[in-house]
Write a structure and sequence with these properties.
Distance between the termini: 67 Å
Number of strands: 0
Structural class: mainly alpha
Oligomer: single chain
Number of helices: 14
Shape: elongated
Radius of gyration: 21 Å
Helix content: over 70%
Length: 259
């Protein structure tokens, strides 16, 4: 009905279609969501930013339906359209989602390649980079760490910390400090790892993020056997407060080790 009143290529109709498609996806009406989004995409050529968002919504729907191959194709389209539109934030958002899909397929090298390319484009001037660029830096660092490139991972995490400070993102600073703590050789550089953990905990406490504080405490318990019991106990209390099952299980395991 809205289409009859507004015209299917009207921006307001496309915005309504996007919201409807997202709502149908969230409520489990996947076929209806697909029809709404694809019809809107077909009418969106005059609205490049909305076209990106519609493709992103369709990619998310396909991801929910576990149609990963199709989701990768649509997510790549969204990245390309965002680049053409000069929408740095949408490039970042869709590249991160694309990397997650590629990782799910076991295509780690391809995920790294996509993240590298986006980083090159988005960090030409990091002072004017899109918000949350630190997320891309840490995601790339994580994948390089998994590939055994420890030094590269540490350099990227340090860049992530710098970017998070530039953005004044407490979450980004906490995540970057925690990544550095994990990837520093704790046996050889315990003081450096401890300093990074202390900074991470401080950032997460300021945010009121109890789960992330518990995550830090659990890692600290792993690298400090002498304090394992007390740290794991504190982490278990926090994990219980936020109903974090994995944290509770890990804290219990560490307490058993410390007994």
């Amino acid at each position: 009905a809205a289409g009859l009143l507004l015209g299917e290529d009207d921006e307001r109709f496309l915005v309504l279609s996007l919201k409807l498609g997202e709502a149908l996806t969230a409520s489990g009406h996947h076929l209806a969501a697909e029809m709404v989004l694809k019809e809107a995409i077909a009418s969106s050529t005059a609205h490049p930013l909305l076209r990106v968002r519609l493709h992103a919504a369709l990619a998310q729907l396909l991801t929910v339906r576990e149609l990963t191959d199709e989701a990768v194709v649509v997510r790549r389209q969204a990245v390309g359209q965002a680049l053409t539109a000069g929408a740095a934030g949408l490039v970042l958002e869709n590249t991160l989602a694309l990397a997650t899909l590629l990782e799910r397929q076991g295509e780690i090298e391809e995920a790294i390649s996509e993240l590298d390319e986006a980083l090159l484009l988005l960090s030409a001037a990091e002072e004017s980079a899109p918000p949350d660029l630190w997320r891309l830096l840490l995601r790339l660092a994580e994948l390089r760490q998994r590939r055994g490139e420890g030094d590269a991972a540490l350099r990227l995490a340090a860049r992530g910390l710098e970017q998070a400070r530039r953005e004044r993102s407490l979450e980004g600073q906490g995540r970057s400090h925690l990544a550095l703590a994990r990837w520093i050789d704790a046996e050889a550089q315990l003081d450096e790892a401890e300093a990074a953990l202390t900074a991470a905990v401080a950032a997460f406490r300021r945010l009121g993020d109890r789960r992330s504080v518990a995550e830090c405490l659990l890692y600290r318990a792993r690298i400090q056997p002498a304090r394992r019991a007390s740290l794991a106990e504190e982490a278990r209390d926090l994990a219980r407060q936020v109903q974090w099952r994995e944290g509770l299980a890990e804290a219990s395991r560490l307490l058993t080790e410390a007994a």
